[in-house]
Amino acid sequence: MKVTVEGIDSIDKNFDAVMKEIDNAVNYGLEVVGTEMRGSLQVHIMDDVYEQYEPEVYLRRVDYPEYGVSMMDSSNIEEQIENGRLHFSYAFSGVNTAFEGAPYYKQSDKIIKAIQDGVNYSWDVDIEPRPFWDNFVADMIDKGMAEQYLVKAMNYYDDRLQVKGDGKVIKDGNDGGNLHW
Hints:
The chain is of the alpha+beta class. It is built from four helices and four strands; from the N terminus they run H-E-E-H-H-H-E-E.
Protein backbone atom coordinates (compact mmCIF):
# COMPACT_ATOMS: atom_id res chain seq x y z
CA MET A 1 0.00 0.00 0.00
CA LYS A 2 1.41 3.35 -0.99
CA VAL A 3 1.19 6.32 1.37
CA THR A 4 2.43 9.82 0.61
CA VAL A 5 3.33 12.00 3.59
CA GLU A 6 3.07 15.75 3.12
CA GLY A 7 2.79 16.82 6.76
CA ILE A 8 1.18 15.84 10.02
CA ASP A 9 -2.37 16.24 8.70
CA SER A 10 -1.68 13.98 5.73
CA ILE A 11 -0.35 11.26 8.06
CA ASP A 12 -3.66 11.25 9.95
CA LYS A 13 -5.71 11.25 6.74
CA ASN A 14 -3.60 8.50 5.16
CA PHE A 15 -3.71 6.43 8.34
CA ASP A 16 -7.50 6.76 8.57
CA ALA A 17 -7.89 5.78 4.90
CA VAL A 18 -5.60 2.76 5.29
CA MET A 19 -7.41 1.62 8.45
CA LYS A 20 -10.79 1.95 6.71
CA GLU A 21 -9.56 -0.22 3.83
CA ILE A 22 -8.19 -2.81 6.27
CA ASP A 23 -11.47 -2.85 8.22
CA ASN A 24 -13.44 -3.27 4.99
CA ALA A 25 -11.15 -6.09 3.86
CA VAL A 26 -11.45 -7.82 7.24
CA ASN A 27 -15.25 -7.64 7.16
CA TYR A 28 -15.33 -8.92 3.59
CA GLY A 29 -12.93 -11.71 4.54
CA LEU A 30 -15.02 -12.70 7.54
CA GLU A 31 -18.14 -12.84 5.36
CA VAL A 32 -16.32 -15.26 3.07
CA VAL A 33 -15.07 -17.29 6.04
CA GLY A 34 -18.62 -17.52 7.44
CA THR A 35 -19.98 -18.73 4.11
CA GLU A 36 -17.19 -21.31 3.75
CA MET A 37 -17.71 -22.47 7.35
CA ARG A 38 -21.44 -22.92 6.70
CA GLY A 39 -20.71 -25.13 3.70
CA SER A 40 -18.03 -27.09 5.54
CA LEU A 41 -20.32 -27.78 8.51
CA GLN A 42 -23.06 -29.01 6.16
CA VAL A 43 -20.58 -31.36 4.48
CA HIS A 44 -19.47 -32.68 7.89
CA ILE A 45 -23.08 -33.30 8.89
CA MET A 46 -23.64 -35.25 5.69
CA ASP A 47 -20.35 -37.19 5.80
CA ASP A 48 -19.86 -37.62 9.55
CA VAL A 49 -23.48 -38.06 10.65
CA TYR A 50 -25.86 -39.10 7.90
CA GLU A 51 -23.50 -41.35 5.94
CA GLN A 52 -22.25 -43.17 9.07
CA TYR A 53 -25.57 -44.50 10.35
CA GLU A 54 -28.89 -45.46 8.82
CA PRO A 55 -31.72 -45.17 11.33
CA GLU A 56 -34.17 -48.01 11.77
CA VAL A 57 -36.43 -46.36 14.32
CA TYR A 58 -37.17 -42.97 12.79
CA LEU A 59 -37.31 -41.08 9.49
CA ARG A 60 -34.67 -38.44 8.91
CA ARG A 61 -35.90 -34.95 8.28
CA VAL A 62 -33.25 -34.48 5.58
CA ASP A 63 -35.18 -37.09 3.56
CA TYR A 64 -38.62 -36.09 4.86
CA PRO A 65 -38.64 -32.29 5.29
CA GLU A 66 -42.36 -32.35 6.03
CA TYR A 67 -41.43 -33.74 9.49
CA GLY A 68 -39.27 -30.77 10.46
CA VAL A 69 -36.02 -28.97 9.82
CA SER A 70 -33.05 -31.27 9.19
CA MET A 71 -29.73 -31.01 10.99
CA MET A 72 -28.00 -29.62 7.93
CA ASP A 73 -30.60 -27.03 7.02
CA SER A 74 -29.10 -23.59 6.50
CA SER A 75 -31.58 -22.03 8.93
CA ASN A 76 -29.74 -23.77 11.80
CA ILE A 77 -26.52 -21.88 11.08
CA GLU A 78 -25.87 -18.24 11.84
CA GLU A 79 -22.84 -16.07 11.20
CA GLN A 80 -22.53 -12.64 12.77
CA ILE A 81 -19.72 -10.19 12.14
CA GLU A 82 -19.25 -7.52 14.74
CA ASN A 83 -16.23 -5.34 15.45
CA GLY A 84 -13.96 -7.39 13.20
CA ARG A 85 -14.97 -10.69 14.80
CA LEU A 86 -16.94 -13.63 13.45
CA HIS A 87 -19.41 -15.45 15.69
CA PHE A 88 -20.52 -18.72 14.10
CA SER A 89 -23.47 -20.48 15.70
CA TYR A 90 -25.15 -23.82 15.05
CA ALA A 91 -28.37 -24.89 16.75
CA PHE A 92 -31.23 -27.09 15.64
CA SER A 93 -34.38 -28.59 17.06
CA GLY A 94 -34.86 -32.25 17.83
CA VAL A 95 -38.54 -31.98 17.05
CA ASN A 96 -39.60 -34.52 14.44
CA THR A 97 -43.32 -34.20 13.80
CA ALA A 98 -43.55 -37.78 12.52
CA PHE A 99 -42.93 -38.96 16.07
CA GLU A 100 -44.96 -36.75 18.39
CA GLY A 101 -44.24 -37.74 21.96
CA ALA A 102 -41.25 -39.89 20.99
CA PRO A 103 -38.22 -39.98 23.32
CA TYR A 104 -35.82 -37.54 21.72
CA TYR A 105 -33.87 -34.52 22.81
CA LYS A 106 -35.36 -31.16 22.04
CA GLN A 107 -32.32 -29.12 23.05
CA SER A 108 -29.69 -28.65 20.36
CA ASP A 109 -26.68 -28.95 22.66
CA LYS A 110 -27.91 -32.31 24.01
CA ILE A 111 -28.46 -33.65 20.49
CA ILE A 112 -25.00 -32.48 19.39
CA LYS A 113 -23.43 -34.15 22.44
CA ALA A 114 -25.30 -37.43 21.89
CA ILE A 115 -24.29 -37.58 18.23
CA GLN A 116 -20.70 -36.51 18.92
CA ASP A 117 -20.14 -39.00 21.75
CA GLY A 118 -22.44 -41.79 20.62
CA VAL A 119 -24.04 -42.02 24.08
CA ASN A 120 -27.30 -41.17 25.81
CA TYR A 121 -29.49 -41.79 22.81
CA SER A 122 -33.19 -41.65 23.54
CA TRP A 123 -33.96 -44.39 21.02
CA ASP A 124 -32.43 -47.23 23.07
CA VAL A 125 -29.90 -48.08 20.33
CA ASP A 126 -26.11 -48.23 20.23
CA ILE A 127 -24.63 -45.84 17.71
CA GLU A 128 -20.93 -45.14 17.22
CA PRO A 129 -19.70 -41.60 17.95
CA ARG A 130 -20.05 -39.25 14.99
CA PRO A 131 -17.96 -36.20 15.92
CA PHE A 132 -19.14 -33.86 13.18
CA TRP A 133 -18.66 -30.65 15.22
CA ASP A 134 -15.18 -31.61 16.44
CA ASN A 135 -14.16 -32.58 12.89
CA PHE A 136 -15.53 -29.29 11.56
CA VAL A 137 -13.62 -27.23 14.16
CA ALA A 138 -10.45 -29.25 13.50
CA ASP A 139 -10.67 -28.44 9.78
CA MET A 140 -11.49 -24.78 10.22
CA ILE A 141 -9.13 -23.89 13.05
CA ASP A 142 -6.56 -26.60 13.72
CA LYS A 143 -5.87 -27.26 10.03
CA GLY A 144 -6.02 -23.54 9.25
CA MET A 145 -8.79 -23.53 6.64
CA ALA A 146 -10.56 -20.50 8.15
CA GLU A 147 -7.34 -18.50 8.12
CA GLN A 148 -6.65 -19.51 4.51
CA TYR A 149 -10.12 -18.35 3.47
CA LEU A 150 -9.65 -15.06 5.34
CA VAL A 151 -6.24 -14.30 3.83
CA LYS A 152 -7.38 -15.17 0.32
CA ALA A 153 -10.58 -13.09 0.64
CA MET A 154 -8.80 -10.04 2.09
CA ASN A 155 -6.22 -10.10 -0.68
CA TYR A 156 -8.97 -10.52 -3.25
CA TYR A 157 -10.76 -7.49 -1.76
CA ASP A 158 -7.60 -5.37 -1.92
CA ASP A 159 -4.45 -6.97 -3.31
CA ARG A 160 -2.39 -4.02 -2.09
CA LEU A 161 -2.78 -5.33 1.47
CA GLN A 162 -0.66 -8.41 0.77
CA VAL A 163 -2.04 -10.22 3.82
CA LYS A 164 -0.20 -13.38 4.84
CA GLY A 165 -1.31 -16.06 7.29
CA ASP A 166 0.88 -17.12 10.16
CA GLY A 167 -1.02 -20.21 11.30
CA LYS A 168 -1.68 -18.71 14.71
CA VAL A 169 -5.45 -18.38 14.59
CA ILE A 170 -6.96 -17.98 18.03
CA LYS A 171 -10.45 -19.21 18.70
CA ASP A 172 -12.13 -17.48 21.59
CA GLY A 173 -14.39 -20.41 22.30
CA ASN A 174 -15.86 -23.67 21.09
CA ASP A 175 -18.75 -24.72 23.22
CA GLY A 176 -20.30 -27.39 21.00
CA GLY A 177 -22.42 -25.29 18.70
CA ASN A 178 -20.75 -21.90 18.88
CA LEU A 179 -17.41 -20.89 17.52
CA HIS A 180 -16.01 -17.44 18.19
CA TRP A 181 -13.15 -16.37 15.98
